[in-house]
Amino acid sequence: MTTTAFDSDNRVAITAVTGFLGSGKTRYINQLLQQPGMANTVVIVNEIGQLGIDQANWSFVQPSTILLEGGCLCCQMQGSMSATLQRLFTDALARTIPRFNRIIVETSGLADASALRFTLHSDFFLKERFYYNGCICIVDVVNADKQSAYIEWSRQLVQADLVLLSGTDCAAGDQALGVAQHVSTLTDAPAMSIPQFFANENTLDVLSKLQISPRPGTGFSHFMTGPLAGAIVTNRRGLAQEQDLAPNRAHQPPKPQSSLRPVQTHSAIKIVTLAFTQPLRRSVFNQALEVMLAGLGTTLIRAKALLRFVDDPGLYLFNIVHAQRYPAQRLRAAQEQDPTAMVLFLDGATQLARLPQAEDFYRL
Questions:
Q1: By CB neighbour count within 10 A (0-12 exposed, 13-18 middle, 19+ buried), where does 8 fall?
Q2: Does domain 5-213 have CATH number 3.55.50.30?
Q3: What is the top-level taxon of the source organism (predicted)?
Q4: Where are the domains of the chain?
Q5: Are 17 and 24 in contact (CB under 8 A)?
Q6: What angle, 0 to 180 degrees and rounded to 10, lies between the N-to-C axes of helices 114-122 and 78-93?
Q7: pTM of the predicted model as reported, rounded to 2 decimal places
Q8: In CATH terms, is domain 223-233+263-361 a member of 3.30.1220.10?
Q9: Rounded CA gap, 293 and 315, in Å?
Q10: Which residue in 93, 139, 282, 353 is a FRET match for 153, CA 20 to 30 A apart?
Q11: Which residue numbers in the chain have pLDDT < 50?
Q12: Which secondary-structure segment (H or E) carries 164?
C-alpha cells in the first residue's frame, strides 16, 4: 500500500534533498524556491565543518535558512536536527518568526535521508507536528561513473522517492540513459532530468504526489518507493524516449532493502579545510589554484570556497567538481563576519605527500 506524502492534517511537510558531492543540490533547491507556492518554505542546510560556506551561499536567496554544521546528518547530527525542528515550531507558534508550511532539508554530499527519517519517526514531539514528505536525490550524470564507486552514492539512491538527473545538457551521447539504467538497478523511484521536473506546470503538485511505500521490517518500517502517477510517469518515459531506448527492467537484480536506522560509516574521504584570515590577491589565488588542482589530480572529489579579494568589496563563491572548475559567483558585498575558507573533499584511499595549505594561496 502506498500513501500520499501530503496528508490532510496540519503537520508540516519535510522533504529531504540528497545527492553526492557537487551533484547540484543547492542549485536545484534555489530554482525550486522560485516556483509558485514555495514562499513559506524553510531550508535547513547540513554542512560538514564549522565555516558556514553553504549558509553564506544561501543567505542571498533564501533568508529562512538554518545551518546544521559540524558533522554529517547521517552520523552525529540527529540531536541537532531534532532541536532545530522543535525550535522552529515553538518560534513560529510564538510568532517570533513567520509561519511556514514546508521544510526542505539539504543534506551534505555524504549523507542520506535515513537519519532524518529516523528522527521524525522516533521523536514523539516531532511526529505530532511534522511528517516525512519523501526524499529527492540529485544525480550528476557527467560524474556518475566516478561517484558511483563511493558507497554514499548508492545509499542516497536507495533512500530516494524521486531521482533527478543533473548535467544532462552536458552529457555525451547516451550517457544520461546509461546513468538512468544504473540508477534503476538501485531504486524503483521514478527518474527524470531536472529540466523535465521544472517543465511541469505545478511543481508543488509534483512534490505532493511523492509516494512512500512501506515495507515490513523490525522496529521501524522499511521503505522503498514506487512510480508516481500522471506527469511524473510521463516524464520518466520521456527521458528514455529522448534516447530512443527504454530501460529493460525485466531481469533486474533484487532491489536493496532500505533501512530506517541511520548508517554511521563512510567511504575513505578526507576533508581538508583551509581558513583564510586576509583577502587574497586574485592573480596569486588563480595560479595557486591551478598548482593545487594539478597536484591533487583525481584525488580531488569536490572543492568549494568562499573568498574575498584585495581591492574588491565582493564575496565570491567557487565550486570545483573533480577536475571541472566552474566560474566564480559573486554573491553580494562582503561583510566582516563572513567566513572565508576552502573545503576540499579528497579520496582518502590515495596517499598524498603533502596536503594543500592556506599559505599556498598567499604566495607564488
A1: exposed
A2: no
A3: Bacteria
A4: 5-213, 223-233+263-361
A5: no
A6: 60
A7: 0.76
A8: yes
A9: 22
A10: 353
A11: 1-8, 50-51, 55-63, 70-77, 214-260, 263
A12: strand 162-166
